[in-house]
């Protein structure tokens, strides 16, 4: 059974990400939210997928909804990095999966 960390590390305190993540893990708050709310999966399924306590999944969801401005900024930074990578010729995951050149 996974042990609860009890803490979300804000992006500005993180040595591994520039966005909030679950303490002691590399999974970000936004990754959890995208899997629970974006992919319509339950918190238990996401917890099992990442060997997390369900409580940590709920902590990530709570953090996301308690910090909307910070999470909007995270999404903006991601979009900017993706656009920059595309300008340099990087493929999207869909293009890679589909075998597009």
UniProtKB/TrEMBL annotation:
Query: What is the official name of this protein in its record?
Result: DUF433 domain-containing protein
Where in this protein does the record put region Disordered?
Answer: 1-20, 72-101
Q: Which domain of life is it from?
A: Archaea
What Gene3D superfamilies does this protein's entry cite?
Answer: Winged helix-like DNA-binding domain superfamily/Winged helix DNA-binding domain
Q: Which organism is it from?
A: Halosimplex pelagicum
Q: Give one Pfam family.
A: DUF433
């Amino acid at each position: 059974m996974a042990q609860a960390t009890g803490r979300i590390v804000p992006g500005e305190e993180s040595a591994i990400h520039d966005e909030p993540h679950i303490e002691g893990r590399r999974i970000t708050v936004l990754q959890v939210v995208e899997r629970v709310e974006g992919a319509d999966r339950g918190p238990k399924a996401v917890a099992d997928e990442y060997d997390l306590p369900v409580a940590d999944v709920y902590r990530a969801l709570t953090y996301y909804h308690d910090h909307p401005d910070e999470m909007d900024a995270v999404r903006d930074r991601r979009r900017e990095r993706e656009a920059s990578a595309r300008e340099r010729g990087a493929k999207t995951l869909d293009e890679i999966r589909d075998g597009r050149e």
